């Protein structure tokens, strides 16, 4: 099987532990909608995208489990993983999907991984650009109810900006820009 280009792989989850005795694994999803896992017929498993690109796996089944904390766990079975021991060997490995297998987006939507590298600019209360730039998105974290953008700023510590409607006004995938109306004090942190 030819190696897949690692640049075409996107992190969708992380294997946390075996589940049961027949090779099923619990996966912590790295997506805002864990049910998207149900679309995948193949996944790539490894500690990083380069390694995973050589480890394409056919999906046997995907189930979902509601957790006590309100999140959804993905229960994944791969065709080549048939025992608890095999599943245990994959503990803490990342799960990647190929870009060709990702679901299409609605107009105005972007994948979380596409936010990395976007410029964060300030708009006024009427959503008009002020000409000020805060910085560049370095990372995106899930924090319960919303995502947090870690924004790199020149000569200042990184800033965490919550992706909530009063602050984040729009995301423009084509312009690679996130437009924010920061509340008083946010930029002083």
Structural notes for this entry:
With 189 residues, the chain is mostly beta strands. It has two domains: 6-101, Elongation Factor Tu (Ef-tu), domain 3; 112-184, SH3 type barrels (Roll), CATH 2.30.30. Helix content is 7%, strand content 46%. The protein has helices at 49-52, 84-89, 112-115; strands spanning 9-18, 25-29, 42-46, 56-66, 72-78, 94-98, 119-123, 129-143, 146-153, 156-162, 168-172, 177-180. The strands form two sheets. A six-stranded antiparallel beta barrel has the order 1-2-5-4-3-6. A six-stranded mixed β-sheet has the order 10-9-8-7-12-11. The longest helix has 6 residues, at 84-89. The model has no long low-confidence stretch (mean pLDDT 91). Residues 112-186 form the Ribosome maturation factor RimM PRC barrel domain. Residues 12-101 form the RimM N-terminal domain. Belongs to the RimM family. Its main location: cytoplasm.
Content-based structural category? mainly beta
- State the major sheet: 6 strands, antiparallel, barrel
Using DSSP, what is the number of strands?
A: 12
Measured as a percent range, the helix fraction is under 10%
CATH class of the largest domain: Mainly Beta
Name given to the CATH architecture of the largest domain: Beta Barrel
Main location: cytoplasm
Protein name: Ribosome maturation factor RimM
Family: Belongs to the RimM family.
Domain Ribosome maturation factor RimM PRC barrel: 112-186
